Amino acid sequence: MKILVVHQLPYRKADYRRAIDHRRHAVTYIGEPDRLADLPADLPCTRLEIGAGEDVVQAVLARLGPADGYERVVSLSEFGVVAACRIREHLGIEGPSLAQTLRVHDKVGMKAALEGSGVRCPRFVAAPPPGDQLPWSGRTVLKPRRGTCSEGVIICETAEEAVRRFRALADPDGYEVEEFVEGDILHADGIVDQGRLVHCVVSRYVNRPADFAAGMPLGSYQTPHDERHHDFVARTVRALGITSGSVHLEFFETPVGELVFLEIANRMGGAGVITAHLRHTGVHLPSYEIAQCLGEEAPRPAGSSGRFHGWLVHPGHQLAPGADHFVRLPERLLNHPCVDRVHRLLPTDPAPRHITYQEWLVPLALEASHRDPAVLAEFLRQWADAASFVTGRAA
User: In the CATH scheme, what is the code of domain 184-387?
Assistant: First the structure.
């Protein structure tokens, strides 16, 4: 089989070799120079380099066509799913339609598609109506209709403030306005096959993704199976018409236990989700998605650790360019039995210039686990609280 991989997700996350036999298939990776540089040197494949910042769809249109004989297009990144639709169409390859893909790529479109499904969503508008009167009051969120990592999210104390700030945006068409929902945020990660949710693990965030964008640590920990959560995820998947692949659904659990949709993506979760999921279930999410894309049998799950897993990352994007950075933590936390692995940048290593959850790019990242999810949750909260205000310039 001739396979084109739109290579945007770091190789260490995708680990394509788990799911693709590179000696049996003819595999081409297309990507920018820094992406292709992270492929293993001994990986048997063709590397098709495009310019830094070059549009990958335009690059494919200029370099490849149906006569090149590609049979499958693989794209695992949030930033490549729409591109993959257009590339498949250009190359004459079947796959999810652009309309299906956009339904779970646009935050207005996905909530509009859930109307009447019984899945509760926050009240929202694509833009304030004439007269600027929103159908709710109180805390209100402005957020980009597309994008990840809560980049560009603005939380306002009142609906009136949100309208004023919306009107001042340079690109208001790229934003939506949404009521703020109190409660914990959870994320569900799993596999959909032929329109049915066949595998799912739910985790609870430590802090909110918007807190990370504002400079606070972010983490999550896996929770025991809860049929309410599983049913909510399954109903959402059905209502949105997701037919295959990985799903990463974020939703609220309010103080009274109500479940409220936040957003969904038809791809794997970021940060430490893939590793934590693999250790807890034996399921490597990228491999399952790739196998579906290739029409091949899903790999057998590896053994489970028998533990609940979590992760936590400390942001570096808020640091001044060139500033030394460090995170100081009590020894009792660094040597705690929950700790599986700690990733550190040296104080003089460059901090990320953009918001990222990648553990090898942030000043400090943690992988942790325990047989009791309550113990793991408390440990992660202690870690986050102990380090929340000590990231900055080295003394």
Answer: 3.30.470.20
